Amino acid sequence: MMHSSLFVFDIETVPDIDVLPQLTGETAPDPETGRKMLEEYHLEITSGRNGFPRQPFHKVVAISFLRATIQRDGDLEMYEIEELRSGGELSSEEKDLVNGFFAYCGKLYPRLVSFNGRGFDLPVLKYRAMKHGVTARWLHQATNKWENYTSRYAPNWHCDLAEVLSDYGASARTKMNEVCAALDLPGKTGVDGSKVSDMYDNGEIDAIRRYCETDVLNTYLLYLRHALHTGLTDHDGYNHAINLTVGWLEERAGDVPAYQEFLDAWRVSSGGSFNVL
Questions:
Q1: DSSP helix/strand/coil, 7
Q2: 94-108 and 122-132 are packed helices; what angle lies between their axes, rounded to 10 degrees?
Q3: Which of 51, 52, 70, 194 supports an S-S bond with 43, CB 3.0-4.6 Å?
Q4: What is the Cα–Cα distance from 242 to 232, expressed in whole angstroms?
Q5: Strand, helix or coil at 241?
């Protein structure tokens, strides 16, 4: 399939402590205690190895994405950013966020791009979709065994950079922030995932969304570098996409401080030169 757009996405979650009564038979007196109880449950079932909640036990609080058009010149692709935003409104319920994600992608049939999206983001979204009765037929349809969204080795359909860059586990899997540091890209600016639960408790949904959007930006920049390396695009195409992205951010940085912080960090990390010569 010749996809006409990229859909670069990331989600933010908090532990779903509403499962505790059915899962453990206990009720949490407050969110902080509930998260600790869920952590202890996971430490117990993993013999102390990992207290991070598994995918079904995450509540989605933000879904952010960047959509870019794919233009073609022979075998080469060129990318132009069309929008960067978070789904829903500040007051949107989880069901609306999840339904919006699957409905939007079901209309576009884009090439999905993520960092660990196959390992975390999509499984969480699928579990929460099943919880809320959300249909996503498009995600599970297949033209053949290899060309579909659920095939692990079909980066034209879903390019999970964490998998692709590690050769699907043949080499060590790295964190996105580590890859960004190695490639002189900005990486995380200001917030990290460990702070999301506290921000959610404090009603800082907009700040969570902006943080998630900058993660999406980092993922997009990594994808552009990957596309250059693999020959999907060339140096002219890469630099053109970068210049469009810089211009897009500069137009909106005055209204969105997180975008200005990202641009400032990018200038520092790149030594003042966004392009690859």
A1: strand
A2: 110
A3: 51
A4: 15
A5: helix
For the beta carbon of residue 108, count every other beta carbon within 10 angstroms.
Answer: 15
Dihedral of alpha carbons 118, 122, 124, 127, sign? negative
Q: Each residue of 102-139: pLDDT tens digit?
A: 999 999 999 999 999 999 999 999 999 999 999 999 99
193-239: per-residue pLDDT in tens?
A: 778 999 999 999 999 999 999 999 999 999 999 999 999 999 999 99
C-alpha pair distances (Å), 215 with each of 6, 26, 63, 191, 253: 16, 35, 11, 10, 16
Residue 188: partners with Cβ closer than 8 Å, 6 or more residues away: 177, 180, 214, 215, 218
User: Rounded to whole angstroms, what are the CA distances from 124 to 25, 57, 58, 86, 173?
Assistant: 23, 8, 7, 17, 20
| Residue ranges per structural domain of the chain | 5-16+53-138+156-269
Cα separation values, 150 from 51, 68, 123, 157, 182, Å = 28, 22, 11, 8, 30
Query: Three-state SS string across 77-96, please?
Result: EEEEEEEEEECCCCCCCHHH
Q: Which fold has domain 5-16+53-138+156-269?
A: Nucleotidyltransferase; domain 5 (3.30.420)
* 107 CB burial (10 A radius; 0-12, 13-18, 19+): exposed
First to last CA, the chain: 32
